[in-house]
Amino acid sequence: MELLLASKSPRRRELIAQLGYKYQIIDNNAPEDFPHHLKAEQIPVFLAEQKANFNKLSLSQNQVAIFADTIVWCEDEVLNKPENYEEAKKMLQKLSGKSHQVISGLCLKSHHKKESFFDITTVYFKPLLENEIDYYIKNYKPYDKAGAYGIQEWIGFIGVEKIEGSYFNVVGLPIQKLYQKLLTF
Amino acid sequence: MELLLASKSPRRRELIAQLGYKYQIIDNNAPEDFPHHLKAEQIPVFLAEQKANFNKLSLSQNQVAIFADTIVWCEDEVLNKPENYEEAKKMLQKLSGKSHQVISGLCLKSHHKKESFFDITTVYFKPLLENEIDYYIKNYKPYDKAGAYGIQEWIGFIGVEKIEGSYFNVVGLPIQKLYQKLLTF
After folding, report:
1. ipTM summary value
2. Alpha-carbon separation of residue B43 from B32, B55, B149, B183 (angstroms)
3. CA distances (Å), A105 to each of A70, A79, A116, A169, B154, in order?
4. Residue A69 a catalytic site member
5. What is the arithmetic mean of pLDDT over A23-36?
6. How do the domains of chain B map onto residue ranges?
């Protein structure tokens, strides 16, 4: 089996490489907007399926294409990638001292079928100090990260008290669920 | 503050490096045996304190020495490092399809005080296939790892359904709790 991963995320690429399958990266140019009535896990699943529908690649018998989207969901709203320092700071202040959900939606597509699923991890941040937030943003510039943090970076080491669910789902891909789906796909 | 880490584990060294403190590695030659009436978290705390007591280093005002031990605790027994292929296979078969605890004990020591604490993470393995166990042991040789697995290796990607607690505690050091203790130590 050969996997085709439609993602620009370097973290997703590193994770897919670990699975041990032959893989390649393919383009993803789908829009990132979604209907506003969608909530929580409906959003990344919708976005992953939208990516799958936009992609016109013809797949051979042994290929499976993987379309993924991940959102950070806190107090009933999505936290996107922060556009600047102030937005990153506001996001981390919002996440501080409480739990939020990291939700991935995946859509798998072969030459004859398509299947979607999601994975949810709950992440608990300790109350973050202002100097910890400032230190992190200044040194790690998390502008490419939804929710303004990477769990595998300094803020994850010092700030995340515990998680419930898959760690790799928070890094970028629910690799265990994906592996299990691929076994029977 | 300068940290002195008494550990031979390369994973612990990598984690301590992430904290951002100045640090150095020191020797650890304490025995690894413990009284048999001890259970669960009492064991790594005892072993960490034993390491601290064996160490005769004199610490300066700004130094904190860190002594750590981690055990894998499954069905009321400790899983140590496997001595050979068969033992590794038996351990992974035992962990398969159920949850176990990874428990770290830490002892912090400065020139005028000493403090111990522990951290527990529950790890849930999916039912592992025999060919998955064989593939992992042959390719990753987990003979230096308690419980015969590393969560940051292939078996962790494909086999761990979820965790409850700190991921880095399973990798080798409860880095968030350690950071928080150091803030007020």
Report:
1. 0.92
2. 10, 19, 20, 26
3. 6, 15, 7, 10, 22
4. yes
5. 92
6. 2-184
Question: Tokens at residue B89, please?
Answer: 């296979």
In chain A, residues with a C-beta closer than 8 Å to the C-beta of B19 are 154, 157-158
Alpha helices in B29-129 (DSSP H): 42-54, 85-95
Q: Which candidate, A50, A47, A56, places its Cα nearest to that of A118?
A: A47
Q: Which of A27, A69, A76, A144 is catalytic?
A: A69
Cα A112 to Cα A108: distance, rounded to the nearest angstrom? 11
DSSP letter (8 states) at residue B112 = S
CATH topology (fold) of A2-184 = Maf protein (3.90.950)
What's the CA angle centered on A147, arms A46 and A4, to 5 degrees? 45
* β-pair partners for A124: A99, A162
Q: Coil, helix or strand for B75?
A: coil
Residue with tokens 């910890």, as numbered in its chain = A132
The partner residue sitting opposite A164, judged by closest CB among B20, B162, B179, is B162
Rounded Cα–Cα distance for residues A42 and A168 (Å): 20
Packing angle between helix B130-140 and helix B85-95, nearest 10 degrees?
Answer: 130
Burial B26-54 (b: 16+ CB within 10 A, else e): bebebeeebeeeeeebebbbbbbbbbbee
> Which is the catalytic residue, given B27, B69, B119, B134?
B69
Structure tokens at B120: 């527990």
Number of DSSP helices (H) and strands (E) in chain A, helices first: 7, 7
pLDDT in tens, A59-101: 999 999 999 999 999 999 999 999 999 999 999 999 999 999 9
Q: With contact defined as beta carbons under 8 Å apart, do A105 and A48 qualify?
A: yes
Cβ contact B157–A18 (<8 Å): yes
Q: Nearest Cβ partner of A167 from B18, B154, B167? A: B167
Main-chain phi, psi angles of B144, to 5 degrees: -100, 10
